[in-house]
Amino acid sequence: MPSRLSDAIIRLHPDFTSLQELPESYAWNQRDDIDYPSFDSSAESVPIIDLNDPNALQNIGHACRTWGVFQVINHGVSTTLLDMVESTSRTLFSLPVNQKLKAARSPDGVSGYGFARISSFFSKLMWSEGFTIVGSPDEHFRQLWPHDYTNHCDVIKEYKQEMKQLAGRLMCLMLGSLGITAKQDIKWAGPKSDFKEASAALQLNYYPACPDPDRAMGLAAHTDSTLLTILYQNSTSGLQVLKEGVGWIKVSPVPDGLVINVGDLMHILSNGSYPSVLHRAMVNRTRHRLSIAYLYGPPSSVKISPHPKLVGPTHPPLYRPITWNEYLDTKAKYFNKALSWVRVCVPLNGLVDVNEHNNSVKVG
Ligand SMILES: O=C(O)CCC(=O)C(=O)O
Ligand SMILES: [Fe+2]
């Protein structure tokens, strides 16, 4: 890398541990909570759903409709694997900045190390680092750990496999709660209804301890562009979701729990019944935080549209068909307005998309 370019990147990617004060470039004078108050989980809390509960499907339907987010326990992903993926992520972000930059995301690429991808939409910087994995992690991991990358690659591959299985199961439950049977009603679910052809990316997020957390922002408010997102967070809280009419609600980490977000494509598929949840990550004065988001969507050639079973004379389709890539392009252009650019019809109840009230929604 030419040295002037790498100097510029290092200036943009500081060694957070060396900063004793919050630089002005990281000070968010205006955060979204100007309009919305913040609550801890004592006010209202995101539903926690046991996947072994015989009522799991109904509970998921209710959570998707009212919150657009829920946590799952007894999901079948082992604690050992969650610990291992957390450990690989922590090892990655603990590398010296110069080493991490060897696997920097290229300006037009998606995989690799860098700031949150949504950073370009904001004038202030976010107190976080990210690493995106699309496809195999081998090449980038070899750059990070030239002599010792295979174990880390294996952990990521196993985690992605487990996530894919869980995501397929959650798809069946979420669709089932809308009255849609994966096997009969969704062609791309495949003969075993395992959504084998689905696409996905893994997003590792690291939020170092911050000297002035009240003025900093870990990851600004956004909805995910996915069908659904499976988020693992370590034991440090920081995730908040916006509950319409209430405010920002903390999503407290539950031992071995996974947070499931409804994404924009599920909102479209459900013809607006399931809201894609607006969420953000705050930072902590003394503790670092890690999160690992499995971003799950349809195969690249599949167009997502309001499902025919949810459409009728009194329920016209609210959105036009769109592929994941087309939607990502729309989101990158129109940010929080992306859903309205896909909309073909104003809902009969006259409500606008929840996200349009906020001016800081970005790609997930
Ligand atoms: O760190 C978190 O809790 C949120 C991460 C997130 O929203 C994302 O990666 O899209
Ligand atoms: Fe997100």
From TrEMBL:
Under InterPro entries, the record lists: DIOX_N, IPNS-like_FE2OG_OXY, IPNS-like_sf, Iron_ascorbate_oxido_reductase, Oxoglu/Fe-dep_dioxygenase_dom
EC number(s) reported in the record: 1.14.11.15
Fe2OG dioxygenase domain segment(s)? 197-298
Tell me yes or no: is Iron among this UniProt entry's keywords: yes
- What SUPFAM superfamilies does this protein map onto? Clavaminate synthase-like
GO term, biological process aspect, one: gibberellin biosynthetic process
Q: Name one GO molecular function term.
A: gibberellin 3-beta-dioxygenase activity
User: Could you say which enzyme class this protein belongs to?
Assistant: oxidoreductase
User: Which cofactors?
Assistant: L-ascorbate
Question: Span of the secretion signal?
Answer: none
User: Looking at the keywords, is Nucleus present?
Assistant: no
Q: Which UniProt keywords apply?
A: Dioxygenase, Iron, Metal-binding, Oxidoreductase
Give the record's pathway: Hormone biosynthesis; Plant hormone biosynthesis; gibberellin biosynthesis
| Identification of the protein by name | gibberellin 3beta-dioxygenase
Q: Taxonomic lineage of this organism? A: Eukaryota, Viridiplantae, Streptophyta, Embryophyta, Tracheophyta
